[in-house]
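Notes to self after the call with IL:
- keep both proteins in one doc
- input above output, always
- annotate only the second one for now

Protein 1:
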Amino acid sequence: MSPSEKLHVLAHPIVNARLSKLRQTSTTPKEFREGIHDISLILGIEASRDLEEETFKGTTPIGPFTGSVIKPKIGLTPILRAGMGMTDALLDLFPDAQVYHLGIFREKVSLQPVEYYSKLPPNPTVDEVFLLDPLIATGGTACAALNMVIEWGIPVNRIKLLCVLASQDGLNRVQSEFPGVEVWAAAVDPQLTPNGLVSPGLGDTGDRLYNTLKGSD
């Protein structure tokens, strides 16, 4: 499967409306959190279409039936701190998922990713990983996180990268460095600013989620 076939961009009126609300500067932190949650839930549902199922026999109040459960053990790896805004939505879908936080920030001058925290245990304890990063700008942070998960022992074809919004340049970088990774995005913006910000974008996702924008106090 080619990298282009591994990229899935949602086309849904509800997603478009939620994303338009997120973009507006007038959107409150509460509304922003709710919008990120809603889009993440839809991303999670769409990205889990091909998960392997396992059947079991059960009984309803009326009679027997054959049911199914998700077979692979799912891990969620949100990139701190903005990825935490997507986590609860994915836990709604996978309540037994193991959550391993990754701490990576982008140095403001070089725009290079800096790793500062990993909750990954010594050996993999899951079969598939949903990597959660609401905003892919240059792609450096996502690539660093992918390296961490792959070095942990998860094959690239068992990783799904979920983002609310990505730049085209960021996606190009991710797909160039990791052509086997499956990427799910709610939307793609065409440009990056000279400072490496997605344009028109959402602004700083972490600050908007947690009401820490300068001047917010």
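Protein 2 (the one to annotate):
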Amino acid sequence: MLGRAVDDISTGSDSEYSNCAVPSVSSSWISWFLSSKGNEYFCEVEEDYILDRFNLTGLNNEVSNYAQALDLITDNLDDDIQDELRGALDVQARLLYGLIHARWIVTARGLAKMLEKFKRVDFGRCPRVLCQSQPLLPVGLSDTPYEKSVKLYCGRCEDVYSPKSSRHGSIDGAYFGTSFPHLLFLVYPSLLPPKAGPVDPTPSSRGLENDSSRKSRRVKEEPEISESVVETGSTAGVALKAERYRPRIYGFQLNETAKLQRWQEAVRDRQIARLEALEDLS
């Protein structure tokens, strides 16, 4: 029961996919998968990449019925397979394709394909007002499947947001990995948005002329903080429990971002010490 629930959360429920058209003989499984509702974040992984077994090293330990799932993705599965088994294989094939996709999008060709989607703003725009509609990029909070759903990363405020659509919100974050957006900005540094001032909402089109203040570094909204203060009764306690997103590439924190965050945390620690001192006096 628990395993079925995890499968539903990370790959889309069976009922959700049963409403989609079954891949026809003339169309490939990958084309059908990409055209299904809720899979708009994915790009097409080239077949020669999938057929190179070196690129799939270790995935046989992550996916049940690995060989048959791979045959299904590459349209080499026997036609006489039972319908019940085919349904189970389809779930495993979606998991396998997602894990392959996470590896593909950090290659040069994969980054180029995701760059096109980024320019079309396929992943939406940052909901934060001071980010001036900065386009977002998908990111995982874990590289391990079944742990965290996909989030959307804003390069301007350097924070992550949940997708608006529940279909997109149920995608496993491991299908995009923790490194992808930061590697994209590393390979294409001209796309990295400024922290203040005008921003080009679509990297290939018009820019906005409105300037934003230095307050663009603020991520949390004041009403959310005040509500937490009321619940806990301690401002310092709220500050200590606050989580923040840390951009990483292959597990290593980015150098400039790491230095900035160390400085920010030092300032935060000083403010917490002041708050604790004031609370002790009151």
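Annotation: Residues 1-21, 204-232 have pLDDT under 50 and may be disordered. Strands lie at 136-139, 151-154, 160-161, 248-249, 252-253.
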